[in-house]
Amino acid sequence: MVAIYCAVENCWKSTASKHVFPNPAKNMALFKKWVKLCGNERLYDMTPNKIFTNCRVCRNHFEDTDFLANNRLNRGAYPSKFLPEVVDIEMSQLLENIPSTSKADGRLVTPVMTTCITPTAGKY
């Protein structure tokens, strides 16, 4: 079984429901805001597509008003509770040279690595 950890720094034991990052192809500004608010430097070494595909943020970091009746997040919701102190780093500097995909023989290839999804073998 694979455990999905919260991407917020120091929140790896949460059992609360997890929510996917905003799609960077649809809303890069909101995506970058989530990455910055997570305060997790490991995210800066990942492509936006890899973060979107593999990383999650737990419910504990959102206000109740951020959720719709079906437990989905409102479109513009972002983590706002129990966050680490965020280092004031300009996200454009961190993400400006990171490609979201790479080309191989003219085809777009999605990265497959799973930094935020880690097997636990029954441990937390």
Automatic annotation (TrEMBL):
Is Repeat found in the keyword set?
Answer: no
Stored SUPFAM superfamilies = Glucocorticoid receptor-like (DNA-binding domain)
Checking Pfam families in the record gives:
THAP
**Annotated ranges, domain THAP-type:** 1-82
Keywords noted in UniProt: DNA-binding, Metal-binding, Zinc, Zinc-finger
The GO terms describing molecular function are: DNA binding; zinc ion binding
Which SMART domains does its entry note?
THAP
Tell me where on the tree of life, at the top rank, the source sits: Eukaryota
Q: Which InterPro entries does this chain map to?
A: THAP_Znf
GTP-binding listed as a keyword: no
What protein does this entry describe? Answer: THAP-type domain-containing protein
Q: Which organism is it from?
A: Pyrocoelia pectoralis
